[in-house]
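Escalation from tier 1.

The customer reports that the assembly of two entities below gives different structure tokens on two consecutive runs. Tier 1 could not reproduce it. I'm attaching the input and our single run for tier 2 to review.
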Amino acid sequence: RKEVEQDPGPFNVPEGATVAFNCTYSNSASQSFFWYRQDCRKEPKLLMSVYSSGNEDGRFTAQLNRASQYISLLIRDSKLSDSATYLCVVDTGGFKTIFGAGTRLFVKA
Amino acid sequence: GAGVSQSPRYKVAKRGQDVALRCDPISGHVSLFWYQQALGQGPEFLTYFQNEAQLDKSGLPSDRFFAERPEGSVSTLKIQRTQQEDSAVYLCASSRNYDSGANVLTFGAGSRLTVL
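Tier 1 run:
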């Protein structure tokens, strides 16, 4: 079993839609959680950190459920520019920062 | 520098050749990571440095892969006797944080290796 697993995607949604991505992690000792965004043929870039109480950044909301070892990302009012791959990232507390395989999002006009 | 710099951006190697990929992290960043990203996959952890110390190399796929960061800044990933399955983008990332946990990574643009 992979340490970080994500929805396989791709997600195809119209502009203005709300879309949610899920992620599970296997190491209960994991300490920090993030969502990164990766555009086609570009490097990953930090989208947002994920805090225990949940956090919001504009149209983006991240949630963490430690008991279920589950992380989510909600995007409201999708824009064409949101089209990308979204990577769930878990810092295991050792010296590894582990990435999921990514979920591809296509937002259509 | 302002960002993480990697070179070469593109490398084509014949099977069996040795290659060296360079990473110049953000000045002052203590932590440095190497990842391998195959097409359509997420980045796979290879190794981690804290200054010049290689504290985790559990992700290196074979003993043909070797990484170093001798002065705690620039790092080199070396692949000996390249094989076709080594074809991937090799990403370097650095982080300011000293402690494990809460490592926010800044990535370089990557080195795309194609082995023929």
